[in-house]
Amino acid sequence: MLPTNLDIDVLRALVIAMEHGGFARAAERLGRTQSAISLQMKKLEEQVGQPLFRKAGRTVALTDAGDLLLGYAHRIVALNDEALAAARGRAMDGAVRVGFPQDLAERWLPAVLGSFHRAHPRIHVEAQVGRGRELREKVAQGALDLALAFGEIGGATAGTGAATLAHLPVAWVAPVDFRADPDTPLPLALLDAPCMFRQHGIDRLDRDGRPWRITFTSPSLSGLWAAVEAGLGVTLRTPLGLPDTLATLGPDCGLPMLGSVPLELHRAPSAANPAVDRLDDLLTAALHTLLPGMPPKK
After folding, report:
1. SS3 letters for the chain?
2. Which domain holds residue 220?
3. Residues 252 and 187 in one domain
4. Global confidence as pTM
5. Mean pLDDT within 54-72
6. Quick one: 144 and 278 in the same domain?
């Protein structure tokens, strides 16, 4: 029996529908009728052999199978577009200056930038890794065209020129076998000040009256992960880019809850060229695969 081949046009319609808020919006963007998009989605369900959508009020939402397929659809569509761009020798010139948090630099960043370079070898990409406030300031000053950066923990919605991509939980991070001792000061491994996560953790511990002591500081996230893995202390961060040797502690760990932090994509007002547009699109698509719960792109 021959394997079933998924239709890339249908997968693209699925991606656009989920990114832009439904079948009607997808129909507008693709120049089709809403009924045509609905028929494509029925065809997709028949190919997969599983229901992909469920009713959610006046709209539809994805089932677990649909959410799983959406992640693959992003990757298939992106790879299709990359292959066409490379094969056609798409001559897009230019330069893009982009910034990333350390959390994405080790595992995620090389694959994303490698994919972009293969599709657009004539575009020069200058990538910087830094802390959130530093990256946001560089975008505002025009020193970076794009930046993925954490916003303020529990802060307001991203400002002009920025889009909030996801709200990520902030959690205590420790070795997988860690057990907190309530009778001794909590050992903390932290990034050097100034650091939003560092100050937030200390403030929460002080508010709860939990004794603590700083046992290790590092200027880099890789150094921090190594210290926590070695048992020198616990730290706090999002699960984004967390090494497999470490774990986030649950609400029953005896430590204060930490809330969430927005992951934002900032774009300089002056960054209006096709090269920046293309990298913006690729970053958003790649993050949809990494963070399946991301809201639609506006």
Report:
1. CCCCCCCHHHHHHHHHHHHHCCHHHHHHHHCCCHHHHHHHHHHHHHHHCCCCEEEECCEEEECHHHHHHHHHHHHHHHHHHHHHHHHCCCCCCEEEEEEECHHHHCCHHHHHHHHHHHHCCCEEEEEEECCHHHHHHHHHCCCCCEEEEECCCCCCCCCCCEEEEEEEECEEEEECCCCCCCCCCEEEEEECCCCHHHHHHHHHHHHCCCCEEEEEEECCHHHHHHHHHCCCCEEEECCCCCCCCEEECCHHHCCCCCCEEEEEEEECCCCCCHHHHHHHHHHHHHHHHHCCCCCCCC
2. 171-258
3. yes
4. 0.68
5. 85
6. yes
